[in-house]
Amino acid sequence: MYTESKVVVRYAETDKMGIVHHSVYPIWYELARTEFSREAGFPYSEMEKQGVMNPLVELNCKYIMPADYEDELIVRTSIGKITPARIVFEYEVYKEKLLINTGSTMHAFTGKDLKPINVKKVKPEIYEIFLKAAENKN
Question: Distance between CA atoms of 48 and 50, rounded to whole angstroms?
Fold first, then answer.
């Protein structure tokens, strides 16, 4: 499964050179990941209500071309890998159909105490929803 999230670059997201600051891309990844989870059928807020947290473990970001103020961007999101303990989301950022950035985030499945859990055993319905989304690459 892929989702596409639209982002319009705000002035506050640019630096002195007039391009998007590097620190903004992970924020867009979070926006896109939140939309992905909702479209997959299990919003993060519901997962947290059920006691499952998804803290960030690793972040990768590759800058290919810059984006500028008021550019309309698309963040394409998918699941790269899922295990009972972790999930990896992959991102591609496009400006006018040109790939300008790629990235990934790895998240652990934990309880509210932030101790790792096997989500397949603890909350199998959550695991199945994300597994299905990972397998459906249409």
Answer: 5
Q: What is the CATH number of domain 3-135?
A: 3.10.129.10
By DSSP bridging, strand 86-95 and strand 72-82 are: antiparallel
Q: What is the pLDDT of residues 66-104, one digit of tens each?
A: 999 999 999 999 999 999 999 999 999 999 999 999 999
How would DSSP label each residue in 85-130?
SEEEEEEEEEETTEEEEEEEEEEE-B-TT--B--HHHH-HHHHHHH
Q: Which residue has the tokens 């891309």?
A: 25
pTM of the model: 0.94
Q: What distance in Å separates the CA atoms of residue 13 and residue 77, rounded to the nearest whole number?
A: 21
Domain ranges, ordered by start, for the chain: 3-135
Catalytic residues: 15
Determine the straight-line distance between the first and last CA of the chain, rounded to whole angstroms. Answer: 6
Handedness of CA 38, 40, 42, 44 (dihedral sign): negative
pLDDT score at 138: 55
